[in-house]
Amino acid sequence: MTGSTGSSGPVATAATSAVPAVRVPRRRGTELVLIVLAVLLSVYGYCDVGLARNGTVPPGAAGYGAGLGVLALLAHCAVRFRAPYADPLLLPIAVLLNGLGLVLIYRLDLETPDSDAAPTQLVWSTLGVGLFIVFVLFLRHHRVLQRYAYLSVVAALVLMILPIFFPAVNGARIWIQIGGFSIQPGEFAKILLAIFFASYLAANRNALRYTGKKVWRFQFPTMRVFAPILVIWLLSVGVLVLETDLGTSLLFFGLFIVMLYVATGRGSWIAIGLVLAAAGAVFVGSFEPHVHSRVQDWLNPFASIEAGLGASQLAQSLFAFAWGGMLGTGLGMGHSILIGFAAKSDFILATAGEELGLAGLTAIFLLYALLVERGYRAGLALRDPFGRLLAVGLASIVALQVFVIAGGVMGLIPLTGMAMPFLAQGGSSLVTNWVIVAILVRISDSARGAMLPEGVQEAGP
Amino acid sequence: MTKYIRRASVFCFVLLVALLLNAARVQVFEAQSLDDNSANRRETIQRYDQPRGNILVQGKPITGSRNTGETYKYERTYKNGPLYAPVTGYASQTYGTTFVESAEDDVLSGTDAMLSTVPFWNEISRFQNPGGNVETTIDAGAQQAAYDGLGGKKGAVAAIDPSTGKILALVSTPSYDPGNIAGTGQSDVNAWNSLNGSSSRPMLNRAIRETYPPGSTFKVVTAAAVLENGIVDGTGTATDTPSPYTLPGTTTQLTNESSSDACENATLEYAMAASCNTVFANLGVKVGLSGMVKMAQNFGFNDTKMRIPMTAAKSNFDTDMDKAQLALSSIGQFDTSATPLQMAMVSAAVANGGTLMQPHLVEKTTKKNGTTVSTTDNKSYQQVMSAYTATQLQQLMVDVVEKGTGTNARIPGMTVGGKTGTAQNGVNNEGVPYAWFISYAQGPDASTPQVAVAVVVEDASANRADISGGGSAAPIARSVMEAVLGSSRG
After folding, report:
1. In this structure, are residues A174 and A184 in contact, taking their beta carbons and an 8 Å threshold?
2. Does any CB of chain B come closer than 8 Å to the CB of residue A203?
3. Between the CA of residue A411 and those of A112, A244, A401, what are the distances in Å?
4. Cα–Cα distance between B85 and B207 in angstroms, integer?
5. Does the keyword Signal apply (chain B) (predicted)?
6. What angle do CA A322, A323, A327 make, to 5 degrees?
7. Given a cut of 60, is residue A6 above it in pLDDT?
């Protein structure tokens, strides 16, 4: 087991001093090759859509390729100069998923007259990559974030509560409208909460592990330590009820349980978490009408068809996946636009499933899995508890979000309005995920051999 | 902490596996049932994404497709809709398909696996074959002659090539244009509603889907049973039949259409030519229930699985009757009912020497490029009777046309056999009777008869006295036979 006590131990010191003889591979060339491949694959998809739909290469293909390529190369340069030891897979995966999302949105734009969601998404992509570069360039070390733990949680709560004062959109009160822009502040809150959780748990993990009363086989921590957990849980349910946002509350809660487990190693947390989550879900699923209808739809997706009211969105989504079958219809050849207004956002995966088939969908899931795995790996390689928890937390956000939304649109779990990371239309989500990748890049850079920069001291446990 | 991070990563892996298994469930194992869901429009969209294959008559398409530019892209068109509607049926984006459009839908829509060169590859690649064509057995001239002959009257014509079973004409009037209900627009809905609301029922295929009491035309079946069962010594032997004839077990007296006493003890020959009810009722009872049922079923009565390839309605001959009912059934009354197709089969079996060929409407199906996909073999439906009996019946039917009730069907230079029928309709015969004529014809150079026809006319507007098999129906049969013989000679 890797100790968490840092560089103070004699063995670690000896190991560190022995390292300079062995050159740690940076693998920036690998990253560059993969990025070029990711951009080429996206441009190919873009052209494929145009050829399938109109028989010609889309007029914007060169501009699209150049735009995505320049963004990716700028991001690569930032990594090359400021995070040279970073994991070489993180950035290419993000570029590929973002590129594929642009292709799918462009493809759906073609079927909805006067729609320019794809160009808008490209603008948000630029902003996302811009923020990625800013974080890589100016966040010198991930541990800087630990200083802002309490500021983060306050900001997160403010962001979560803000949409309550704005009108509901499509049944969910998760948006704020400023001018012509709509922002989902809950998306940004995810990172802020992960930072707070990591910081709080890193500081209190021993108290959570060893103190408190023992009841039967469960050892309960003291209220002083336990209270924040309850508060967070109640807040997540509160957010859900007030904003009818099942997805975000599920995500926050799952994130917290995973991080709590990793910090304390106590399986009882998982048990408690599952019981609380189940209780909350049953309560809300029974009494909150919006969520209740989602649960009903999940239990019987074809009820509306039997009632003669036509197919629900979930049924349309299942039809799309089924039509795709093993190999898909080919880009541009499906009919997932039948899903309706959410086809580009919540249900974008249905288009992927219909046009790329089970094969393409598996590839996409594996890309996400790889992204998550590299996040976990960065956490494993680190020594400071905050960094480890933060990496695990950020990676888990991606994993949970993919599971919740993909499981929802495919009928595995009740549907919740959430965005598929990088793929779905929506600026807030895209920007947030780019920032997540930026922090993971920074963490992996630290993990894979970068020396601590000056001015940042190793913090005690 | 490392151990717990690893365990958490295992948790994420489990989530991934759950997603992949679920994706396989939806996209592979439940895909077919989801594709088939009634609310799923994808198969329909794909189906109309290419022009439908055509239905051909003597090599010329009687259908077409037009690009509407809508979600359901290609819409069916019909070149001579009302004339061929009883053959083609309709292919509607709103109301589905019927008749040949339905029976050969896989070929026409391009989904038939036989259309692909490498069937398995198409399954994988989802390549859609272009729609194939369906070549019918219809003779354009005969079809037109039947349609023109019926004119504005309600009725139907079925014509068969006796030696092959090919259906040469299938007409039902009044008819309709299937092109008017092919699409999804409001005008299609309106047309559909008005067709369904019409009292004249233009969408009813009277040739194969409506049954009528066959009346005296059924006497051909009774005569066949009589001869096969040796009830009479020969067609020229006097029968022991009183006139009027009292139905067995009742006091009801059955009379003949003409008041002459010539039907008393008449020979089969005379009884057929003069259409004596008494003789055939008497002889039918002598044959007995089982013998009559067997002969009727040999001709195709009571067959619920008659497909040409669309299903024809079941023609009925009761299997459980007392003698009085059997007597009435033997002259085509009581519960006896037949489609025009069935009566054409009766005539065809006689014309073909006792062997009834399976009637069929589709000659072959081809790929778009003309390569044959399948052909319909000429096959026997049933050996109805002996060749000798058939020969005797032919002579009886020829006599009907030469010197009996069917003289209106005579064609100079041709051998024509026929039988008239005027079926009572409704309680106490209050309804307008149906005029029947069944016949066959053979040209001077032909070795066997080339066409068998059944015509039924139900026309409420006509003067009742004018409705008779010989008067209303025989001229139509004659023009159909002339058209077939004319085209086969030319």
Report:
1. yes
2. no
3. 26, 19, 15
4. 11
5. yes
6. 95
7. no
Q: What is the C-alpha to C-alpha distance for residues B441 and B479, in angstroms, rounded to an integer?
A: 11
Question: Buried (b) or exposed (e) across A223-245, using 16+ Cβ within 10 A?
Answer: eebeebbeebbebbbebbbebbb
Q: Which of A270-274, A358-362, B137-141 bottoms out in mean pLDDT, i.e. has the lowest?
A: A270-274
- For residue A453, pLDDT beyond 50: no
Q: How far is CA A359 from CA A333, A353, A410, in A?
A: 16, 9, 15
Q: Looking at the DSSP assignment, which residues form a beta bridge with residue B457? A: B155, B435
Task: Determine the pLDDT at residue B263.
Answer: 86
Lowest mean pLDDT among A211-225, A347-361, B264-278: A211-225
Residues of B in contact with A321 (CB under 8 A): 23, 26-27, 34
pLDDT in tens, A238-248: 776 677 777 78
* pLDDT, position A17: 46
pLDDT(A12) > 60: no
Alpha-carbon distance A321 to nearest alpha carbon in chain B (angstroms): 6
Three-class secondary structure of residue B63 per DSSP? strand
Residue from B221, B343, B386 nearest B287 by CA: B221
CA gap A427, A438 in Å, rounded: 16
Question: Residue B476 has which token pair?
Answer: 């139509």
**Bridge partners for B159 per DSSP:** B169, B453
Go through B28-39 and write b for each residue having 16 or more CB atoms within 10 A of its CB, e for each that does not: eeebeebeebeb
CB A401 within 8 A of CB A421: yes
Residue A442: predicted pLDDT:
93
The whole-angstrom distance between B447's CA and the closest CA on chain A is: 57
Establish if A310 touches chain B: CB-CB under 8 angstroms.
Answer: yes
Is the pLDDT reported for residue A452 higher than 50?
no
CA–CA dist A173, A159 (Å, integer)? 12
Which structure tokens are listed for A286? 């029974």
Peptide bond into A20 cis (omega under 30): no
Instruction: Report the DSSP pairing between strands A181-183 and A214-215.
Output: unpaired
d(CA A369, CA B311): 56
Q: Read off the tokens for B60.
A: 């010329």
A112-170 pLDDT, tens digit per residue, is 877 888 888 999 999 999 999 999 999 888 889 999 988 988 888 888 888 878 777 76
Please indicate whether, in this complex, the C-beta atoms of B39 and A310 are within 8 angstroms of each other: yes
Other C-beta atoms within 10 Å of A407: how many? Answer: 19
Average pLDDT over residues A34-58: 91
CB contact under 8 A, B26 and A406: no
Average pLDDT over residues B329-338: 92
Q: Strand locations in B166-283, DSSP E? A: 167-173, 245-246, 253-254
Residue pLDDT, tens place only, B14-23: 999 999 999 9
Instruction: List all residues 6 or more positions away from A311 whose beta carbon is below 8 Å from its beta carbon.
Output: A302, A304, A305, A319, B37, B39, B40
Q: What pLDDT score was predicted for residue A233?
A: 67
Check residue B472 and report its DSSP letter: I
Interval B273-291: pLDDT, tens: 888 889 999 999 999 999 9
B35 to A358: CB separation less than 8 angstroms, yes or no: no
C-alpha radius of gyration, chain B, whole number: 28
Residue A459 has pLDDT above 60, yes or no: no
A436 versus A455: the higher-pLDDT residue is: A436
| In B238-361, beta strands by DSSP E | 245-246, 253-254, 355-357
